[in-house]
Amino acid sequence: MKRSVLTIGILLVLLGGAFWWLTNDNDRDGPGSADLLFHCAAGLRKPMSEIARQYEEEFGVKVNLQFGGSGALASQLELAGGDLYLPADQSYIDSAREKGLMEEAIPVALLTAGLVVPKGNPRGLTTLSDLGKEGLKISLAERSASVGRFTWKVLEEEGLLARVNPNVVVTKPTVNAIVEDVATGAVDVSLAWDAVAKNFSEVEWLAVPEFLKRAKRASIGVLTSSKDAKRALHFARYVTARDRGRKVFQEMGFMVPDEGDKWSDQPEVTLFSGSMLRPAIQERVREFEEREGCRVNTVFEGCGTLVAQMDAGATPAGYFACDTKFLNKVQDRFFTGRIMTRNEIVLLVRMGNPKELFKLKDLGKPGVKLGICDGRKSALGELTRIMLERRGLAKELEVNVAVKVAKGDDLVSAVQARSLDAALVYRSNALASPVTLEENEIVELNDDLAFAEQPFAVAKGSAYPALLRRLGECLAAPEARGRFEKLGFQWELN
């Protein structure tokens, strides 16, 4: 009896240890070691199967691929959850985002539909209108599949559905299935994606103008249900990297929307940013680094200084400028910038405004110690110079300018230290520190020249343009808006 009890005890200990080992398996290998569940359009099966195999071989992480029609997969996302979703049509990505099911989405490939016919095209089909020929047998994808949703819609828009519909003898849930119908001789023609048809040696794919002008973009999205978003993004970056997954897509006949990022396990990029943006974005940038598994080296300086550094050879991957004027100076190096916020120049004075400074002209009063920024070094200084010159006050106020500095934050510190009576600063400079307005106050200028617009731009020569675009999206997300507005910025995005 004692031996039996001992044996049972040992077994329980062993079973308990095994259970602990299994339930804590992720902890043994560190974060991001768990398998990924990937919902993928059936038409992308071949390249994604190969990419998943390569990824598992390189990183030891299994990607569980669930293939199906894009619409059928979309309906499963809320129920089944998972980590990633790759439909064959951007509209499914947009819908998933609207429902709150998806975070980031990265373009992968371009898909173009066309006629799929047997080798030699025995029925002589060349146009969409030919699909109305008497006696023709057509296989189309169901509307739940992305290619089906697309082709049925185009037939309707082109006024051909009534003629073509009588010839549709079968519908299938996936694009592969309708191409197989042509390959086996079951039908005369189908409408399918170019890259899928090219995987079948028994068929030919024929381009038609109605489809060529409506090429569809396939993007890989990270689901909000993912329990390991960092790992999911790691795989998404792998799929879309020019020298990893995107290369596989190209080799298998797919078009890609752009060059894509260079692959790196942990990308490192440099972001140039106007110093006035630091309080609004630095925490958001840190969150982005953690989620993406990358490093963003932020350089915060006056925009004049940043432009000078770029003219001297610096090559940041992105530029968040204090004002469009300073992006314009280096625009040839960047893609078109996206204006995200607006900031206003205000007058910062001591509490109670003892010098009675209420408008720009008052700054010329005898004995006023005024601080402004240097236009050669900062957007604030340049905008201040332009404003004073256009109001005819530049020479009048010059006698009272006690300091010219590179950054508005330095002016706030000088007013705080009582070495200045007043300073022309951004509203965000004044609101960056909660103690500033305990001893000082803001005077509104109400001048339409006292505004700066902040654009975010991605460098044309960056090795990681997609990563930088996602950083821009992160800074432009609704979650970031509150921080900007708390600091006095006006939100310019819809």
Notes on the protein architecture:
With 494 residues, this protein is an alpha/beta fold. The protein has five domains: 1-30; 31-110 and 217-251, Periplasmic binding protein-like II (D-Maltodextrin-Binding Protein, domain 2); 113-214, D-Maltodextrin-Binding Protein, domain 2 (3-Layer(aba) Sandwich), CATH 3.40.190.10; 268-341 and 458-477, D-Maltodextrin-Binding Protein, domain 2 (3-Layer(aba) Sandwich); 343-451, D-Maltodextrin-Binding Protein, domain 2, CATH 3.40.190. Helix content is 40%, strand content 23%. The strands form three sheets. Strands 11, 12, 13, 14, 15, 16, 17, 18, 19 and 20 form a ten-stranded mixed beta sheet that branches. Strands 2-1-3-10-4 form a five-stranded mixed beta sheet. Strands 7-6-8-5-9 form a five-stranded mixed beta sheet. β1 (36-41), α3 and β2 form a beta-alpha-beta unit. The longest helix is centred in the N-terminal third of the chain and has 22 residues, at 2-23. Mean pLDDT is 91; it is low at 1-32.
Task: Record the SSE blueprint.
Elements: H1 2-23, H2 25-29, E1 36-41, H3 45-59, E2 63-68, H4 70-80, E3 84-86, H5 90-98, E4 102-111, E5 113-118, E6 138-141, H6 146-157, H7 161-164, E7 168-172, H8 175-183, E8 189-193, H9 194-197, E9 203-206, H10 209-212, E10 216-223, H11 229-240, H12 245-251, E11 268-274, H13 278-292, E12 295-301, H14 303-311, E13 318-320, H15 324-328, E14 338-350, E15 370-373, H16 379-390, H17 394-398, E16 401-405, H18 408-416, E17 422-426, H19 427-431, H20 436-439, E18 440-443, E19 451-458, H21 465-476, H22 478-486, E20 490-491
Parallel strand pairs: 1-2, 1-3, 6-7, 6-8, 11-12, 11-13, 15-16, 15-17
Antiparallel strand pairs: 3-10, 4-10, 5-8, 5-9, 13-19, 14-17, 14-18, 14-19, 14-20
